[in-house]
Amino acid sequence: MSKHTPAERPPGRRARAAEPAAANEGIIEGAVEMAAKPANKAAGDTAGNAPGNTAANASGKKRGAAAVDLRIYSAVVNAVMSHKLPPGTRLGEAEFCELYEVSRTTVRKALQRLAHDHIVVLRPNRGAVVASPSPQEARDVFTARRAIERAIVPLVIRHVTPASIGRIRAALDAEEAARRSGDRAAWIRLGGEFHLLLAELAGNAVLQRFMVELVSRSSLIIAVYENPGVPMCGNHEHHDLLALIENGDEQGATALIEHHLEEIEARLHLGTPERKLSLAEALAGC
Ligand SMILES: [Zn+2]
Prior knowledge:
The chain is mainly alpha-helical and 286 residues long. The protein is built from 13 helices and 3 strands; from the N terminus they run H-H-H-H-E-H-H-E-E-H-H-H-H-H-H-H. It folds into 2 domains: 13-130, Winged helix-like DNA-binding domain superfamily/Winged helix DNA-binding domain (Arc Repressor Mutant, subunit A, Orthogonal Bundle), CATH 1.10.10; 135-266, Four Helix Bundle (Hemerythrin (Met), subunit A), CATH 1.20.120.530. Helices cover 67% and strands 3% of the residues. A 3-stranded antiparallel β-sheet has the order 1-3-2. A hairpin with a 3-residue loop joins strand 2 (120-123) and strand 3. Helix 3 (27-43) packs across helix 4 (55-81). It is globular and about 60 Å long.
């Protein structure tokens, strides 16, 4: 069971809520946007329904609303990855409407996408909350991450360029700067983003899209089963990984990423798998 209760929103939270989207429009938005394009095109049901609009205006508004639902999606993912939105936090539609100045239709679209990626749970008539993954889900997410990241690392090495090495180095510097300055939220988020950057540099959009979901879900898992505010990743392993990538050591880099993910999973207090009691067991002695 989660040790967290839904967080009360402190005053001033609304003002801060929009920040992550503006601060990190790179990695997450890139991955989500790439994957979202066909869906938005097919849906075509966003804003732009005012009578008298020219076709061009209408399509402009549609694009605008689609972009906002991605911004909302990315802002929530960023806040989850920074442990600023703990599991169980209620996500009020009205607040999103006010913050982003959009219709409920647009907000619902973003929340549905988040629910589809298991970052948010939609409860009939009671709105959306940040998901609280079960121990079984936690194991499944880390098994999936090991499988996918084992595939990503050799691809990064095969596609490596001086520019991609430069980006990895910059990501490590940002992580280190956040750690030194004591900005834990940024440190936690940047640790996750390091893995998303590798997925991007692997040059496979499908793997990249999976990773946005898996890294966000991992952040929720750590908030529930380790401690909120604890970084997922040890920075030195990220540095070691860069050295192996630079040396073109596919085998070493694959082994290291696997070990790195096993270590993260091993720190979780997942307990024994949840088992439902039979009625006889539950009633015994009562
Ligand atoms: Zn890591």
